[in-house]
Amino acid sequence: MAFVLVAPEMVTAAASDLANIGSAINTANTAVAAPTAELLAAGTDEVSEAIASLFSGHALDYQSLGARMTAFHDQFVAALTAGGGLYSSAEAAAATPLQDLLNVVNAPTQALLGRPLIGDGADGTAPGQAGGAGGLLYGNGGNGAAGTNPGVAGGAGGAAGLIGNGGAGGIGGAGGSGGAGGTGGWLYGNGGAGGAGGAGAPGPVSFNGNNGGNGGNGGAAGWWGTGGAGGAGGEGGAAGGDPADIAYGQTGGVGGNGGSGGNGGWFAGNAGAGGNGGVGGDGNAADHGLVAGAGGVGGAGGAAGLFGDGGAGGQGGDGGPAGLVGASDGGAGGDGGRAGWLSGNAGAGGAGGAGGVLDSTSPVFPGNGGAGGSGGAAGLFGDGAAGGAGGAGGASQTFTGDGGAGGTGGAGGWLYGNGGAGGSGGAGGAGIGTGGFGGSGGNGGTGGIGGLIGNGGAGGVGGAGNTNQVSGYSGNGGNGGNGGAAQLIGAGGGGGEGGVGGTGAAGVTGSAGASGVGGRLYSGNGIPDIFGRPLIGDGADGAPGTGQAGGDGGWLYGNGGAGGSGASGQAGGAGGAAGLIGNGGAGGTGGSGAAGGNGGAGGWLFGDGGTGGTGGDAVAGLPGVNGGNGGNGGAGGAAGWWGRGGIGGQGGTGGEAGGGTGIHAGNGGTGGNGGGGGWLSGDAGAGGQGGASVASNYIAGGGGAGGNGGAAGLFGAGGAGGTGGTGGNGNAPAGGDAGHGGQGGYGGWLAGSGGAGGTGGVGGLGDSASGTGGSGGGGGAARLFGDGGSGGNGGVGGPGTVVFAGGGGSGGTGGAAGWLIGNGGAGGQGGVAGTPDGVDGLLGGTGGAGGTGGTAGWLYGSGGSGGAGGAGTASFYPGSTGGNGGNGGNGGAAQVIGSGGSGGAAGTGGAGGPDSPPDIPAGNDGQDGVGGAGGSGGLVFGNSGG
């Protein structure tokens, strides 16, 4: 690695060139010195002598000036030569200490992780060897080595660290796959290109040709950068055939599939294009090979992140030519990649490969064209991409190949954008012999749907049927594709025209595609489409006791109606959805033991999701029959573009058991999940509380689990998990266990904290033992920036009124921080064990374990602290041991910069039972739990947790 900005070799070369130029000038000056300095006079008169003397004087002055310039030139060349030497000396003198310093900096990470802190990863050298990873802070990944040997895949490109480009994947050996490109730097850098697949080797005599290798996938970028292009698929090998006319039936190798393009950066950057599929192997009809190999499928284009263009799909490989019986089909084109969520162009679908062509030695069946790939969808704003064109059918003397179908157009932006046009169908193959058939054209692709505001895409044109060049039958034209539908405001796409049939006998023109449906509010003709809901106004509520869904709000403004409650055993009705602006309706309460209705969706542009309906309480069982389970709570409705998600409904209460041995009370219903926050901004809804189980004279039921919190969109906090339901009290041997807390929801894709986990429920009383407290739910993870949610606390064990007190529930795990920056969530505390009452209750319970702290963000942030273990409770039975304390949870780890989380404190053991003189001494105290270990500190800076 050079440490100066001047290349000494270039300085030395420049000095040599200047010396040669000076030598050439000196030679020229010497040659003209005498003729010009001793110029003879034209005559003997004074004027001629004066003129000759004047020019001779100028010549002498020129020679004097030339001598001085020669001296300056020699001095300059000498200085330049010396400078080059000094630069070389300076570089040699500086390189060793600087390299030594870099080695010292790189030593810890090299020893710990096998990669430097700063520097490029090494290129692979052995066949198929992967490139080395780049430095953690700065450096490009090394390139993967070529497979070289038959069947050996190319090596994968090395990954970059924080800043740098991923290495390119190596080319596969014969028939081997190309290596995947390395991922770009987490903060900045491009993904590496995937390696091309190796061409399949021709088959030996009487054997099939070998398949071509698949292209390697392009590497994904990190936060900012371009995804790598996918590698091309290798060509299939030719069929071996048999010139001696002994064996028939060999086939050409299939062309390799193109590799997928790498995704663009999370924040900004274009995605990589998919690789082209490989051409199918030659059928070798001359040596009695039977069928040619099919073309490989084009690779899919990569998807962009927040801003950027999706990658184009790769073109399908052409089918191989000229088998004895037929050629093979062209490969399908790859699908285009999705555009950036906020802005960017979607990737176009790849064209299908052409069907294989036959010659006079193979007059029967040619290949069909491959289908075009689908166009990529837009994000929030933007037009969908066009679908790829279908491949043309192969030509033949008799039957001919049909054209491939066009790809479907991509969907327009969710809020605004037009759908992409469908791809054109491929043309049918031409008949080249007497009495043959021309191929039919492929059907056009369907247009993509528009966004909330936007037109549907036009359907693709059907492919033309081809004409037999001598006589016979011509092919039919393909049908046009249907136009894409608009959604709220916009015109439906026009249907594609049918392909023209061949001009010979029986060629029929294809049918035109149907036009897409126009927008529900405005379809381009000035007349609003009502469809049973108002333009402005609230939706009607569902009738009670019917489970009827609430009506949808007005298209422009209005809240959804509330769902009606259900009759006995009937689910509650779903809340109505809002239109453009408004809140979703609440779900209806479920009838006995039935689920509550889901909350309605908030407005597309602005509005909150509706609350989920409460699950129905179960009825008591008849004699000899178990009690029914409580109904589950309904899910909260999701917000649209901007708004909060709805809260999940509470689970219903379990029913009392009927009389008789072995009869159970019903379990509480599960709480409903919270609704998702708005796509752009808005907090997600919390999960609903789990339902409790009722007290029973028989076997107790368990509490229902809390619902999970909803996930946020781009910006917003995840929803908290619901609390677990309480376990039921029972006179059978054990009380019911409590329900577990719900999981916290994910924070926003760009920024937002994860939701807290729900608290575990309280265990129920039992005749011999009480129920265990429910475990706390795990905290929700952040995504890019944000703190992880704290884990839920474990539930308290059931109190000991008979023999055994219930154990405390475990604390939930803290949520992981955002991928780049953020602190891990704290682990939940272990639940305290139930307490014996000292009269009938005898033995103390065990405390629950604390939850583990969440991991910090990769670049910066501290790990979450571990949760404390729950305390064990004292025993009252003489001579008995007290309940043990729960272990503390481990602290979460930091990654590059930040401190590790502290370990959770150990739970204390409960006191032992009293003595009972004279025979029974006092019991031992329960054991204290083990404290949690602290999380590791950052690799570059940060302390480990205590």
UniProtKB/TrEMBL annotation:
Gly residues composition-biased segments: 894-913, 926-946
Give me the ranges of the annotated region Disordered: 647-666, 894-946
Q: Which InterPro entries match?
A: PE-PGRS_N (IPR000084), PGRS_rpt (IPR048996), PPE_sf (IPR038332)
What are the PE domain coordinates in residue numbering? 4-94
Pfam families xrefs: PE, PGRS
**Which spans are transmembrane here?**
none
- In Swiss-Prot or TrEMBL terms, this protein is called PE-PGRS family protein
Taxonomic source organism: Mycobacterium marinum (strain ATCC BAA-535 / M)
